[in-house]
Amino acid sequence: MNSLSVDIKELNERIEKESALIETITLEMNKVIVGQNHLVESLLIGLLSNGHILLEGVPGLAKTLAINTLSNIIDAKFSRIQFTPDLLPADLLGTLIYSQKQEDFIMKKGPIFANFILADEINRSPAKVQSALLEAMQERQVTIGTESFKLTEPFLVMATQNPIEQEGTYPLPEAQVDRFMLKVIINYPKKEEEVLIIRQNLAKSFPKANTVLSTEAIIKARQVVKDVYMDEKIEKYIVDIVFATRFPEQYDLKKYKDLISFGGSPRASINLALAAKAYAFIKRRGYVIPEDVRAVCHDVMRHRIGLTYEAEAENISSEEIISEILNTVEVP
C-alpha cells in the first residue's frame, strides 16, 4: 500500500507539471471567448482523450469561434465544412482528377485533411455525407478510389446541430451519434458576459489568441492522460452507472424500466473512463475521484440512452434519468 501512495505522490507531481499546458490554452482561449467555460472544457476533454464532440445549441454561441481559436493556439490546420442538403461525400473527402499533363489521375484532398474539423449543422446533409465523415472519425483514414489515406493526428471533429429547426434535416442515427465521445449542450451567456461580448465586438480590433503550442505537445499530453491513476472502485462506479441505464430495476430505479429502450454500450463505459481521466488532468490531478466521473457523466451519456414513447409522452429526458442514476448509484 505504501509504495502505491508514494507512486501516487510522484504521479501527482508529474501530472501537475505536465498539465501546465492546460493553463496556457485556457489563458489564450479566455482572451477571445467570453464565458462558455463548459464548451472550452469539453473541447479540452475531446482533445486530450482523442474523442469527437457533438455540440447542440442555437446559432451565435461562439461554437465556430471556439474551435477556430483552439486551432490558432495549437499550431494546427483548421477546416470548417458547412453541411448542406446538396453536399456530396467527395466535397468532404476529396476526389481523383485526371491530369492531362501527367496522363494520370491525381489526388485532390478535401477539407477533411486537417487537424480540427468543424462540421457545421451536420444534420443538414444526407446519410451518405454523414457516414463519410463518421468513417473518417472512426477509422482515422479516408478511402478515395482504391487508395486509403491516413489522417494526421491530432484529429478532432466538432459537429454542431441546431436544435430549433427540424424541417429539412436528416437526424443522425443513434448508432452514429454513439461515435461522438461527448454531446454538449450550449446555453446562452449570462448578462454580464453578454455586455463583455458586445464591448469586445465593438472594439477597434478583435482580440486574437497567440500560437503557443505544437501538435506534438498535444500528442504527448494524451500519453500522460493515459497515466492518470484510476482505482478499481472508480472503475466499478463507472460500470454501475452504465449498467443502471441498461437494467434500472437492479439499482432501485424500477420506474425507468419502461422508459429506457436501450442503455449505454461498452463504448459509453470506455468514454466515461477516458473523459474522467482527462477531466482529472485538466484539474491537474494524478488520480480520478468520483467527482470527475460525475462532472463528465451528462456529456458522455446523454446521447447514449434511448427513450421509449412512454418517456416522451411523460416528457422525461435522458438528462433527468442520468441525474437520478447519479443520485442513486452508490458513490465509492
Sketch the topology as an H/E string, one letter per element: HHHEHEHEEEHEEEHEHHHEHHEHH
Cα-atom radius of gyration: 21 Å
Principal-axes shape call: globular
- First-last Cα distance: 18 Å
- Strand coverage percent: 5-15%
Q: Name the CATH superfamily assignment of the largest domain.
A: P-loop containing nucleotide triphosphate hydrolases
Helical stretch count?
14
> What oligomeric arrangement do these chains adopt?
single chain
Integer tally of domains:
2
Coarse structural class: alpha/beta
Model regions low in confidence, pLDDT < 50 over at least 5 residues: none
How much is the average pLDDT? 87
What is the makeup of the main sheet? 5 strands, parallel
Indicate the CATH topology of the largest domain: Rossmann fold
Q: Helical percent range?
A: 40-55%
How many strands in all? 11
The order of strands across the largest sheet is 2-5-8-1-9
The CATH class label of the largest domain is: Alpha Beta
What is the second-level CATH architecture of the largest domain? 3-Layer(aba) Sandwich
